[in-house]
Amino acid sequence: MRIVVVGAGLAGLAAAARLAARGHAVIVLDKGRSPGGRLATRRIGSATLDHGAQFFTVRSDAFAAFVAPHRASGLVREWCRGFGVEDGYSRYAVTGGMNALAKAVAAPLDVRTSSMVFAIRRAPTGSASTWEVVIDDGTVEPADAIVVTCPLPQSYSLLVTAEVELPVELIRTDYDRTIALLLALDGPSSMLAPGGLQQPTDQLSFVSDNRLKGVSTTDALTVHANATWSEAHWQDPLDVLTDALTVEAAAFIGSASVTAAQIKKWRFATPRTIWPEPCWTSPDGTLVLAGDAFAGPRIEGAVLSGIAAADALAG
Ligand SMILES: Cc1cc2nc3c(=O)[nH]c(=O)nc-3n(C[C@H](O)[C@H](O)[C@H](O)COP(=O)(O)OP(=O)(O)OC[C@H]3O[C@@H](n4cnc5c(N)ncnc54)[C@H](O)[C@@H]3O)c2cc1C
After folding, report:
1. 203-250 pLDDT, tens per residue?
2. Domain range holding 162?
3. Three-state helix/strand/coil letters over the chain
4. Which atom of ligand 1 is nearest to the CA of 154?
5. What is the pLDDT of residues 294-315, one digit of tens each?
6. How many Å lie between the centroid of ligand 1 and the Cα of residue 37?
């Protein structure tokens, strides 16, 4: 089959890798400049910062098998076994930043970045394919089957033209937001090894020292506001957000000075509800929706959903 996967986050990449291994002709389209989606890493000067997902855990055999070659190559390594208190469960980080894992999975695949899908529609009667995927530059990719892995509100908007009846509860899935502050520092922060803290204040969900984590060669902090704060301050101007979150993170910045600051807003950070199945398949079996809203709001969930989507199409 010729299969188009929309979205090169880990759900789309996991689906594409599995389908390509089975001999299907697969292309992956993503609107971003790099594959990875919420597995995102940014450079600010000489600093490297993970600004989406910070680490991952491995709970299932299927995800362990997915990660195994990347652990063997040294790309994926244990960061720590808990933040503050060790609980024995490994938290994994990625050498060079989380986005490097997505790039490694994408490398052997036909991934086309800067390709925003505009609409998905049925191919005209009599044509050789089942679907047409319309890209924002006007090109149309024919497909026998499609896997759509965007956050659900974005997937839904692509499918308005697809003549597919989606379950109402699926369409209504909402997402928490995250506002991230990225700080380059002129010296060490006040954080201690391993360099990560969950819910460090009433308004923050995570603070990470990217140098202590082994991602950055220079000092840099990632500060995530929690869902409540992010929603309440979503419309604030960038300088107001920067100032407020810098004050909130002052105890972690310590005596270092901030040399550069950037804000990144994640509108679709965390699905609020999880669909009971690991993916959703259209009645004719040619369109599958997948992503972390199906198998759990984390990297492992995205991968498991992508694997399930590939299996739903390819049997
Ligand atoms: C701030 C933050 C912190 C997090 N922390 C953790 C953590 O510590 N551990 C953990 O396990 N998980 C964490 N997560 C969650 C984890 O990142 C996600 O669960 C996972 O990456 C989702 O993968 P996905 O493939 O389902 O979706 P995404 O990664 O969102 O991929 C969807 C892709 O679809 C693309 N797309 C959307 N619309 C279009 C279009 N029209 N055309 C083409 N492409 C399109 C997007 O560009 C994107 O690349 C965090 C997430 C955020 C935002």
Report:
1. 999 999 999 999 999 999 999 999 999 999 999 999 999 999 999 999
2. 2-33+113-172+274-314
3. CEEEEECCCHHHHHHHHHHHHCCCEEEEECCCCCCCCCCCEEEECCEEEECCCCCECCCCHHHHHHHHHHHHCCCEEEEECCCCCCCCCCEEEECCCCHHHHHHHHCCCEEECCCCEEEEEECCCCCCCCEEEEECCCCEEEECEEEECCCHHHHHHHCCCCCCCCCHHHHCCCEEEEEEEEEEECCCCCCCCCCEEECCCCCEEEEEECCCCCCCCCCEEEEEECHHHHHHCCCCCHHHHHHHHHHHCHHHHCCCCEEEEEEEEEEEEEECCCCCCCCEECCCCCEEECCHHHHCCCHHHHHHHHHHHHHHHHC
4. 38
5. 999 999 999 999 999 999 997 6
6. 4
